[in-house]
């Protein structure tokens, strides 16, 4: 079975793919100090507690944090006796190469989102990922990643507000009932929630104008369902998008190997 690992700047998600479906998905805070042994203790206890029967013998990793890849590789080598594919490394082929400025290292999560979005919806697509950063990935007609937008993430913005202004508390993002807040917390939540809805709508409008053609919009990432409640911008919200892309990229590389 395939172990697919999606490491973002905040959370790392592990999913087990049995060839037909994901039989388990677990999430751990991203921490570059975590060792292979620690990952394994965590993974194997979850497998035992949930009675998940899985013989893992293949792995694929996408990581926006380069430093964690070493220990994830050790995990795969030592405990699953396999060499993981690492998205973004030369030995990991993509169905279509990205078309960006020379020397640009596109975040592997964005490449994976592009592959998954194209598989599910075809080309001319915008994938919005509400992760640590809020990213917009533009997918061309043939499925190539051709660029996009990186904006500060929602929680990052709230954190910055709290850090920079003495009178502003730490607050969690939620959908406020009204745009006009009648207390400090409600005002901050409104600024971030409706601010990000406006950001997403505005950026998508601008991208569509530059591309001058119909483009679907797919949202993913931890906070996507919350933002879907405030706008009809998204054609769909798919929390398994990155995992789906990892399975596709793994399959693509296996096919190349046996061809
Ligand atoms: N279900 C949730 N409810 C509220 N916040 C969430 C939820 N899931 C994730 N988050 C927050 O959303 C942000 C993005 O999460 P995630 O998509 O896991 O980011 P990344 O991929 O960059 O690690 C993080 O700040 C995280 O704390
Ligand atoms: C933009 C990102 C920080 C988003 O990461 P995430 O929010 O998923 O942790 C990541 O995709 C990245 O480090 N990108 C490199 C630059 C680029 O994609 O052009
Ligand atoms: K991500």
From TrEMBL:
CDD domains, per database record: ASKHA_NBD_PanK-III
An example molecular function term from Gene Ontology annotations: pantothenate kinase activity
Gene Ontology annotations of biological process type: coenzyme A biosynthetic process
Binding-site list for ATP: 6-13, 132
Involved pathway(s): Cofactor biosynthesis; coenzyme A biosynthesis; CoA from (R)-pantothenate: step 1/5
Active site (catalytic residues): 109 (proton acceptor)
Residues that coordinate or bind substrate: 107-110, 184
UniProt-annotated location(s): Cytoplasm
Organism domain of life: Bacteria
Cofactor: NH4(+); K(+)
Keyword Methyltransferase: no
Cofactor note: A monovalent cation. Ammonium or potassium.
GO cellular component labels: cytoplasm
UniProt keyword list: ATP-binding, Coenzyme A biosynthesis, Cytoplasm, Kinase, Metal-binding, Nucleotide-binding, Potassium, Transferase
Pfam families from the UniProt entry: Pan_kinase
Known role: Catalyzes the phosphorylation of pantothenate (Pan), the first step in CoA biosynthesis.
Family (UniProt): Belongs to the type III pantothenate kinase family.
Subunit structure: Homodimer.
Protein name: Type III pantothenate kinase
Name of the gene encoding the protein in the UniProt record: coaX
């Amino acid at each position: 079975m395939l172990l697919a690992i999606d490491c973002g700047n905040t959370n790392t998600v592990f999913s087990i793919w049995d060839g037909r479906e994901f039989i388990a998905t677990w999430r751990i805070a991203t921490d570059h100090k975590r060792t292979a042994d620690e990952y394994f203790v965590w993974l194997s206890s979850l497998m035992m507690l949930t009675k998940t029967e899985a013989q893992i013998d293949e792995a694929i990793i996408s990581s926006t944090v380069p430093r964690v890849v070493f220990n994830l590789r050790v995990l795969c080598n030592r405990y699953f006796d396999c060499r993981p594919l690492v998205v973004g490394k030369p030995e990991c082929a993509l169905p279509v190469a990205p078309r960006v400025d020379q020397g640009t290292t596109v975040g592997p999560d964005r490449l994976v989102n592009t592959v998954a979005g194209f598989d599910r919806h075809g080309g001319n697509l915008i994938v919005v990922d509400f992760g640590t950063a809020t990213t917009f990935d533009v997918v061309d007609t043939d499925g190539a990643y051709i660029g996009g937008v990186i904006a500060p993430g929602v929680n990052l913005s709230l954190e910055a507000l709290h850090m920079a202004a003495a009178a502003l508390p730490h607050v969690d993002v939620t959908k406020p009932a009204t745009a006009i807040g009648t207390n400090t917390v409600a005002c901050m939540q409104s600024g971030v929630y409706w601010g990000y809805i406006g950001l997403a709508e505005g950026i998508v409008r601008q991208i569509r104008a530059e591309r001058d053609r119909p483009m679907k919009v797919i949202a993913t990432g931890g906070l996507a369902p919350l933002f879907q409640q405030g706008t009809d911008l998204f054609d769909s919200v798919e929390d398994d998008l990155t995992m789906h892309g990892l399975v596709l990229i793994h399959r693509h590389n296996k096919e190349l190997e046996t061809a």
